[in-house]
Hints:
The chain is α/β, with parallel strands linked by helices. The chain has four domains: 3-200 and 279-392, ATPase, nucleotide binding domain (Nucleotidyltransferase, domain 5), CATH 3.30.420; 202-278, Actin, Chain A, domain 4 (Alpha-Beta Complex), CATH 3.90.640; 399-531, Substrate Binding Domain Of DNAk, Chain A, domain 1 (Sandwich); 536-704, Rossmann fold (3-Layer(aba) Sandwich). It is built from 17 helices and 36 strands. Helix 4 packs across helix 10 (344-358) and helix 12 runs parallel beside helix 17 (690-704). The radius of gyration is 36 Å and the shape is elongated. Adenosine-5'-triphosphate binds at residues 10-13, 71, 173-176, 201-203, 240, 243-244, 247, 314-316, 318-319, 342.
Amino acid sequence: MGISVGIDLGTTYSAVATFDKATGTVKILKNDIGEDCTPSVVCIEDGEVTIGQAAKDLQAAGNVNTAAFYKSMMGEPNFSCYIDGQSFSAENLSAAFLRGLKQAVEEANGVTIDSAVITVPAYFNEAQRQATLRAGEAAGMRVLKLINEPTSAIIAYGLTGQGEKNVMVYDLGGGTFDVTIAHIRGANVDVLATNGNHQLGGKDWDAVIVEEVASRFYDQFGVNVRDYEDVMNELAVKCEKTKKVLTNVPVTQISVQCEGFYGKYDISREFFEERTQTQLAETTLLIQKCFDEISRQSGKSFGWTSLDEVVLVGGSTRMPQISKMITEAFGRPPIIIGNKVDTIVASGAAMQASICNEGSITLSAASGFVRNTNTAPGAPAPTLTICGDAIKDVTSHSLGMLAFLEEKSLDLINSIIIPKNSAIGEAQGRWYKSHADKICVHVLQGESDNPYDCTFLYSFTITGLKAGQENRVQVFFLYNPSGMVEVSAQDEMGRDLPVKKEQGAGLALSAGRSLDQIIAEVRREKEEAMRRPPLDVTFVVDTSGSMEGRPLDEAKKSIQEFLAQLDQTDAKISILKFSDSCDWKCYQTEISKRPFIQKAIQSLEVDGGTTATPLGDFAKKQGFHKIDGKILVVLTDGEWEHQGFEIMSAQSLKKKGVIIYAVGIGDADFDFLSKIASNGGAKKIDLSSLADTFRAIASSIATQS
Ligand SMILES: Nc1ncnc2c1ncn2[C@@H]1O[C@H](COP(=O)(O)OP(=O)(O)OP(=O)(O)O)[C@@H](O)[C@H]1O
Ligand SMILES: [Mg+2]
């Protein structure tokens, strides 16, 4: 049977670890050359893939079929790397690397890896997470979960089984920077805030040296090494080495060879630190952002003094300038994990993999990860149990949807549903009303109100609704435990509705429509809806003597049901009662003015016979106004005195585009009703189904509009 591992898939170095349940310890799985860390470099030649140190050596020797730093391009639709006569996406390169890494580790340790928890920078967005997940699966592993690198470090390092503290993890790797602040209670972790920059890492410190050397070489020989890909590859590797040397010595030398010229230059730590101030300042800015966010969320000021520990993770935190900056700001030195700095993230991921499989794990004292302080003489060696639900991570990006700024506006905004720093794994529900058979939701990731500053992720289409009825649907938005977006929907009864997901162009160029297309479409639909005149409905209600009692009570109730069902905020409502005379109880009252309409309905009273001509009166009242599209709902229980005249009035109204529904109860004459109603609009029914009939008419009107 295969094992589950944790993989720290780093920009520059990767590490693999596994948790051994029997001993309660984490084992770092060394690669084929006996090392804990494997350079995340890939070389592809004639279809043959080489990874790790061997590939890095080829890169250093100027081989142009090598690729490194592709992690920072994960999920980037416009990035491709052309090597070995083919183009590769960052995801393809990652998959090739992971396949090679898996094989090397399996052979070296005599194991089979069948599943893994893969780490990602906390600041990775949906596209980057999706790409990482697919790369892991393409490499032949079941991906149990993606876990944020700083959180992984906290699991491995920060838990103590007792006491409470606020811990900041400052993770500066080869290509990414993350800062995460968590509250720890015993073996429980609550992440409070996270920020990062997935384009900032050790490579940007290397770049400063590359630039310096290139410009000195140009000044000396007039040759621009930037034009020579092989020289630049070589220089990249050399400058990284130089940077590491500067961690230990104040000054070192670097040499370059190009076009037969040879240059050798001194680089000092002082110069290096001064030239990398901008990069360092970017990290402090992101720390401050975390402080601000926590202060805002908790309503209490949070800053350096609120922290109990600062932990440094990532190879680049070995640079002395990092500890110096933290010590100055924090007032105390940070915790440096020492020899575990390169493998701590993989260790946490290995623990997480075991937690995924087993629900919880128990670390033994021998693991070296137990920081219990209960050392009373004779006390048993401390252990630490970590449960799956004890680790609460947060989302690093807000999730929102495309929405109109106001009801009458065409301006679209990103309306945030799950704000950043919300706990992942907790769904947020929103209610929607629709008279159509489906609902479309367009989902964005980002903090800005402006959709164009966000990434358009998906369009979700929720189906299974009943056209022409008011459907109340609850849509659930969720960041799953891997920090990836999921949407589901239920009807009013709590039944699941089908949800179709269409990938947006923010995730992959080839798939899906662009944000521009979506916005144009949504606007067009709204414009059409706004151009349509408001619904204009007139109830023509028989109040002759025979309506006395229950019939009129039912009629009043049914009109109210009709209005509730119609639910169009801009409809206009009129009520015309008729007996021996006609009387307008209300005229073109906006449906939102409910109390007015209510009063009009309540004022309907029975009086006399049926000698009035309501359809003729209606026509007269309209005068020369446009009446196309107006709707009449006639309710009567008997025969009218002037049926012939009213049939003529109805025909003339219908010709001008008025739509007439005629509902008969009691002794109503169906033949007459059919003559005044529009096609199929006549009904003779039992009084008990009056409310249902009115509701049905309302929903058919709502759908047709
Ligand atoms: N002694 C050192 N001094 C300075 N930098 C160092 C030292 N040792 C390693 N580094 C730098 O640390 C970086 C690698 O760190 P690490 O392995 O934590 O990153 P990674 O996991 O590959 O990247 P990321 O976490 O950004 O994806 C490289 O940029 C490397 O040059
Ligand atoms: Mg890392």
